Amino acid sequence: MPYSLLLFDYDGTLCDTRQAIVYGFERTFDHYQVPQPNPEVVYSMIGRGLVLGQMLRELRPELSEPEVAEWVVTYREIYAREAEPLVTPFPGVHDLFAQLTAQGVIIGVLSNKGAAVLEASLAQLGLLPFVALVIGDGTMPEKQLAKKPDPMVFHEVVQPRFPEVPAHKILMIGDTPADLQFARNSRIDSCWVTFGFGEAAQCRALQPTHTVSHLLEIPALRRVPVL
């Protein structure tokens, strides 16, 4: 393994959360007494790597910014309370984290998902003990961190936390264009997981450093020589 620090996306990379996300939207829309969104439209938005606020703005363009913020809170409360049982870890994720930890590789989880829900889900799935750094929306309440694909989190959180790890030893692993563009913007290598939610053509166009079709292919990755 040529990398010392692996940064994993969560939704669509470590876990299949599509049913949970759609359920969260349906219950949120029920709460506000508006028609539920088409699940296929929600799936498409997930594949594009949109964050929750962006999805709500597209689904309900009449909402003001304060209303979007309120709906985000409502959605996350419903998701945390009711949707977690619908989350399914992808095959091999526990074995992968155990292998990487045994090899001395540092594991981080970097998601646009709400930080509290993210940590709770990792804990419930038995993955949190392997993870050295969890970054989600709200991780630093005192400072609003820009979401992927903006590299702000990399420069202001990841690098200061692991100053001993050079950028060429860090790999971002994800399933959507937002993850791969984040890696490009941060000037680190990327790995696209083909089994996730991202639109294949868009992900391939971003020319990820590596491509895998199963999580357990990751420990065997080798550095791609620069031509």
From TrEMBL:
- GO BP, sorted A to Z: DNA repair
Mention one GO molecular function: phosphoglycolate phosphatase activity
One Pfam match, given by its short name, reads: HAD_2
Catalytic reactions of this protein: 2-phosphoglycolate + H2O = glycolate + phosphate
Q: Does the keyword Hydrolase apply?
A: yes
Q: What EC number(s) would the UniProt record show?
A: 3.1.3.18
Please give the InterPro entries that the UniProt record associates with this protein: HAD-like_hydrolase_sf, HAD-like_sf, HAD_2, HAD_sf, PGP-like_dom2
Q: What class of enzyme is it?
A: hydrolase
Source organism, top-level taxon: Bacteria
**Pathway entry:** Organic acid metabolism; glycolate biosynthesis; glycolate from 2-phosphoglycolate: step 1/1
Query: Which keywords label this protein?
Result: Hydrolase
**Sequence similarity:** Belongs to the HAD-like hydrolase superfamily. CbbY/CbbZ/Gph/YieH family.
Q: Which PANTHER family match?
A: PHOSPHOGLYCOLATE PHOSPHATASE (PTHR43434)
**What is the official name of this protein in its record?**
phosphoglycolate phosphatase
**Species annotation:** Hymenobacter metallicola
